[in-house]
């Protein structure tokens, strides 16, 4: 939201009260305007004018310097770096830029390091990427931590400065928003480099690829990906480069250390046993640095022996033996406490973990644990996570640590460690959600305020989801079920319904299989039902909520029964069972009255009103919504009041009480605007627009829809933007402002096409065709009506296709294509007949008859030409 404060000076130069304390008083008054705003991508309106102080939303600095640390020693890859840099250069002298480069090679071959070095050089030295660089590790080869495109896009959008509540659900919608933001940066001359690391498949990478003609992307994978990219295959280092990497690393870290130079044969042996893999060579160099008196011959001998032992233990031949041998030797340098923590770290099921969580695993205090983790990081056995105080294991190192951990499970108390970590997640999630719901005490709680609680839940979100799934699938699922309840509430509040469905269904299964208490199963079922309703699985949602309501009734939990009845009513209405929905809401209202819960009663009245309106009982719906408005107003629940007013307007409009409906919509718009609720405001504006249109106030209707479109555009909601633009275009056509209508509907159609929204595309094409007819552009109109008819056919919408064909027949007749018009009119009439639309059939037959008449009698143009 943008706040605008008046600001002026009196004749004595004193500041008036309208000026903020932080205003700059160092410059004298001037008649010139100084309201230039630069250097950012804005998704809000910007107001400029004389004597206006514009206060933008809190500045969000995009995290566009997010490359992980690079190695100080990098050698043997200069040719590969030049090749990658050549692909990153922008268009130059007619040369076409390569927008996507995919680097493939075996595990540990140094793909990530090569990309990081090349990206850093491109950003710092060339000036090609003034916008900075985005980096994401997809964990593609670790089935327990592999990021979906949807999860990765969430993190990338947040790195780009997009607020969490503006990020849509679903990979497709997130991908569209992500591409739009990257394109916006590029258009402002802030070209960004995107680095997508550790991808396992083209499907995992494709939604993350930018869509503009400027943003460049580097991808690493162990596979050659089937995507539209310049492909690069990275091989192992040759023997000379391997020895050079070993030598330069040791000499860089220990000045004057000449052991590698002095023992070239043993250095060559170490390089050979490391198989030319930079990862293994780095670990081997670290071992030498840690023991400055150790001869290379000793290390070479130990590597050879370890390699033989690992072969006897088994493993994938020819890939990771040298790496595991290096891991083994590095592991042997640790103290027992360091080894134990290292072995326990893979028990965390998520992508990384905090020092706090690692301390729970170790059963030690955080200070001691932090020192152990710091050493492991210096030994290159773990890596810093995405923020300070978080840690991660590389894919291969994680497998090795888990292998060691299973071998020492009893000595480490592995089961107890896992239980401690899960308990930590359960209890912390419970307290965080309690704080967010204002249920936690103000003093003794671990979270000082709601902001801390929300930040912790967001930071641990991936871990909490993984922990829930792992625990509910175990033979002791109770903690996982408990965790699903607090986590589920948080995910529902974030409208992360896909994740909510995953977590809640995982918790529901052990409730049924293990006979867990119904006090747990009933709220789990509630979460499942909500998630299924949002996934449009309405019949399943109804069945689940019926079961939850039954359990609550059998337990005598009246509050739980009322909540279950409300959710059942919402699901029934979506399933088309309006009267049954009304009955469920009526039952909930009675219980809330019994409990004296006015807020619950108001929410139930809202649900009842919606169900009654669906059932065609608009008068009763008005009564129910009016009751909800009154209660919400008395409770000072502005958001609830605005929603109830919006629903009241819908019911009043159905009764053709348009003045009262417009008043209700207007009040809802004002409240939503005061609450800075963009979604609610845009919805109420669209409803207000339809009310104005019904009363013939087309200019007001157009203005309301245009305001709705602007809000949706600012929030990055492209589908709702397209809907609002389509409304504006249709209204402009009705107002006979056809030139503006054509332009607006063309924008809407382009949005729908880009979104892949087929029905929206068909409707927009229909209205664009009608607008073009108003501009006497009949051949163009015919093309759009044809497009609409084809899409409706693909959607098996026979009535929609009949309507589109009828419009096509009219356009063809005015274009003097009488034979085609007659044929299309006949097809439209036949389709209308199959759908039972007698009026539509008569209209189509009339159009066919007019076309035949025009064919027999030459048709003269009597209008203006364009």
UniProtKB/TrEMBL annotation:
Residues 854-866 have a biased composition (Basic residues). It comes from the Bacteria. GO terms for molecular function: ATP binding. Keywords: ATP-binding, Nucleotide-binding. Residues 13-28, 839-853 have a biased composition (Basic and acidic residues). Residues 1-35, 839-866 are annotated as: Disordered. The keyword Nucleotide-binding applies. InterPro entries: Apaf_helical (IPR042197), P-loop_NTPase (IPR027417), TPR-like_helical_dom_sf (IPR011990), TPR_rpt (IPR019734). This is ATP-binding protein.
């Amino acid at each position: 939201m943008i706040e605008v404060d008046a600001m002026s000076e009196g004749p004595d130069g004193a500041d008036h009260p309208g000026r903020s304390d932080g205003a700059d008083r160092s410059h004298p008054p001037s008649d010139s305007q100084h309201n230039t705003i630069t250097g950012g991508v804005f998704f809000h309106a910007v107001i400029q004018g004389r004597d206006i102080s514009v206060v933008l939303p809190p500045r969000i600095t995009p995290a566009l310097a997010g490359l992980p640390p690079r190695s100080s020693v990098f050698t043997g890859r200069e040719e590969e770096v030049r090749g990658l840099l050549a692909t990153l250069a922008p268009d130059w002298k007619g040369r076409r830029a390569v927008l996507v480069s995919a680097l493939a090679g075996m595990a540990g071959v140094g793909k990530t390091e090569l990309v990081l070095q090349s990206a850093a050089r491109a950003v710092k030295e060339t000036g090609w990427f003034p916008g900075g660089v985005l980096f994401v590790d997809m964990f593609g080869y670790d089935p327990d931590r592999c990021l979906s495109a949807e999860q990765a896009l969430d993190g990338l959008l947040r790195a780009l400065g997009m607020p969490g509540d503006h990020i849509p659900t679903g990979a497709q919608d997130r991908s569209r928003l992500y591409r739009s933001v990257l394109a916006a940066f590029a258009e402002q001359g802030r070209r960004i480099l995107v680095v997508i690391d550790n991808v396992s498949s083209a499907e995992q990478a494709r939604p993350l690829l930018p869509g503009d003609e400027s943003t460049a992307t580097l991808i690493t994978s162990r596979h050659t990906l089937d995507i539209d990219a310049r492909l690069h295959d990275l091989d192992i280092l040759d023997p000379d480069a391997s020895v050079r990497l070993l030598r330069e690393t040791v000499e860089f870290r220990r000045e004057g250390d000449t052991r590698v130079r002095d023992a070239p044969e043993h250095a060559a042996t170490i390089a050979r046993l490391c198989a030319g893999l930079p990862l293994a060579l780095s670990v081997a160099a670290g071992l030498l640095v840690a023991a400055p008196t150790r001869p290379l011959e000793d290390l070479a001998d130990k590597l050879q022996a370890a390699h033989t032992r690992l072969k006897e233990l088994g493993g994938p031949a020819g890939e990771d033996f040298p790496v595991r041998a290096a891991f083994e030797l590095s592991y042997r340098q640790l103290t027992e406490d360091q080894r134990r923590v290292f072995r326990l770290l893979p028990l965390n099921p998520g992508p990384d973990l905090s020092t706090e969580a690692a301390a729970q695993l170790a059963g030690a205090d955080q200070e001691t644990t932090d020192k152990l983790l710091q050493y492991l990081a210096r030994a290159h056995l773990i890596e810093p996570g995405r923020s300070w105080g978080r840690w991660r294991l590389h894919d291969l190192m994680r497998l090795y640590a888990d292998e060691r951990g299973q071998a020492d499970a009893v000595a480490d108390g592995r089961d107890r460690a896992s239980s401690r970590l899960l308990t930590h997640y359960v209890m912390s999630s419970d307290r965080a959600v309690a704080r967010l719901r204002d249920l936690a005490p103000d003093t003794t709680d671990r979270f000082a305020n709601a902001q801390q609680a929300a930040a912790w839940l967001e930071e641990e979100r991936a871990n909490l989801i993984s922990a829930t799934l792992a625990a509910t699938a175990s033979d002791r699922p109770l903690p996982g079920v408990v965790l699903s309840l607090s986590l589920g509430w948080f995910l529902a509040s974030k409208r992360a319904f896909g994740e909510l469905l995953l977590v809640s269904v995982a918790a529901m299964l052990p409730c049924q299989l293990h006979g867990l208490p119904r006090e747990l199963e009933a709220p789990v079922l509630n979460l499942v039902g909500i998630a299924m309703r949002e996934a449009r699985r309405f019949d399943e949602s109804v069945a689940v909520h019926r079961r939850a309501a039954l359990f609550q009734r059998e337990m005598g939990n009246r509050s739980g029964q009322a909540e279950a009845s409300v959710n059942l009513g919402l699901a029934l209405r979506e399933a088309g069972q309006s009267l049954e929905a009304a009955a469920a809401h009526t039952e909930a209202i009675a219980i809330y009255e019994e409990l004296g819960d006015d807020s619950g009663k108001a929410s139930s009245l809202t649900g009842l009103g919606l169900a009654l309106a669906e059932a065609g009982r608009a008068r009763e719906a008005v009564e129910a919504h009016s009751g909800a408005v009154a209660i919400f107003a008395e409770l000072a629940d502005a958001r609830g009041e605005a929603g109830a007013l919006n629903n009241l307007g819908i019911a009043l409009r159905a009764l053709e009480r348009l003045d009262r409906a417009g008043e209700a919509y207007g009040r809802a718009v004002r409240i939503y605007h005061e609450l800075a609720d963009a979604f609610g405001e845009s919805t109420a504006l669209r409803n207000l627009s339809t009310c104005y249109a019904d009363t013939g106030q087309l200019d007001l209707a157009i203005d309301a829809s245009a305001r709705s479109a602007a809000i949706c555009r600012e929030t990055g909601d492209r589908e709702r933007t397209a809907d609002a633009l389509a409304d504006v275009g249709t209204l402009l056509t009705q107002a006979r402002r056809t030139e503006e209508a054509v332009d607006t509907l063309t924008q809407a159609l382009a949005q729908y096409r880009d979104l892949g929204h087929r029905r929206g595309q068909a409707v927009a094409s229909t209205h664009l065709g009608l607008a073009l007819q108003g501009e006497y552009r009949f051949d163009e109109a015919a093309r759009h009506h044809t497009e609409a008819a084809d899409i409706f056919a693909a959607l098996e919408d026979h009535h929609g296709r009949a309507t589109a064909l009828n419009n096509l027949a009219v356009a063809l007749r005015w274009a003097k294509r009488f034979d085609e018009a007659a044929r299309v009119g006949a097809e439209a009439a036949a389709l209308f007949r199959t759908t039972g639309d007698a009026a539509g059939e008569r209209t189509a037959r009339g159009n066919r008859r007019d076309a035949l008449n025009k064919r027999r009698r030459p048709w003269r143009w009597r209008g203006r030409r364009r």
